[in-house]
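Supplementary Note 3. Input sequence used for the single-chain structure prediction.
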Amino acid sequence: MADKDLYEILGISKQASDDEIKKAYRKLAMQHHPDQNKGDKNAEKKFKEISASYEILKDPQKREAYDQYGHDAFRQGNMGGGFRGFEDFANNFNFSDFNSIFEEFFGEGFGSPQRQRRALRGSDMRYNMSISLQDAFTGKKSQIRIPSHAGCDLCSATGSADKSGPSTCSTCNGHGKVRSTSGFFSIERPCPTCGGEGFSIKNPCFKCSGTGQIKKQKTISVTIPAGVDEGTKIRISGEGEPGQRGAGNGDLYIFINIQKDKLFEREEENIYCHIPISITTAILGGEIEVPTIEGKKARLTIPPGTQSETQFRLRGKGMSILRQKRRGDLYIETGVEIPVNLTLKQKSILKEFEKEGGTSKVHSPKSQSFFQKIKEVWEDLT
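The predicted structure, written as discrete structure tokens, is reproduced below.
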């Protein structure tokens, strides 16, 4: 006997979408289910063909094999793994397979045993902590207050006003689900009375509303290690939300935010500081004091002829590095400060300096080089 086309069995085209395949199966399964056709062998056979067709076409890999090789894909030695063909596959299709297919449409529980509900671990919590750059350098210990839950003192954490605790739900008899039947369908859904828990509080405590827990604030000690950076995440195990029915607590995650500093700018393990210097120090050179991240001062030698934006590197004076003993570097960038409100004598001295060739190529190489470039540009244009 010639093998039947699976698409024809479901009454759909070969280009049918997954949704169209599901709708076709659902319609035909309701029509030919054996419970709807007691003693009708033809209906039972038709139902098996419909279910077997859907079992193949709903699976992308099996559908692709069928589209390419037809029923040969399911003969012995191919994907069928021992069936002579589709008809043999359909005849061996059992009703436990049918139950698993129906779960796709009506959810968990159709024709299957009650699954034990798992206690849920508590949710994780997040706390944003803002610290100074100095605290990020040295590390610190801090006390924080976070929202939490504790056992209700009025009902002794039982959830019930008479402290008797939860009782088996009378609607679902502790199963957590109720079953409704329509025709040959048997559908299980979470119990509307207990919300799927299997138990309920008959006389809830008014203080905790039957939960057995009340909200409160708790104080936690947090250690911030030296070298943390913007966005560093610190995990404190077991300090998150409490779990359900004795399950473990969630974790608390501290997210670090570094405040902007007045003196220093940070780039990973290095820090930068802009220091103004006098024009005489820039010209003649000298020694200045510069701040460091640990709050001390360091001596820095300024060589004669130092220009603005010159950088000096102080090794090992930068930020701490997380979980390492070494430190980054401190970079001092100079800014030559031009004096203002000069006296007549000071102006006279500067003019005398200019007459003596103070703006010559020897003393101002950058300026002379710049103006020479402008001159060359004008000569090229003319």
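Residues 76-84, 105-117 have pLDDT under 50 and may be disordered. Residues 6-106 form a domain with the Helix Hairpins fold (CATH 1.10.287.110).
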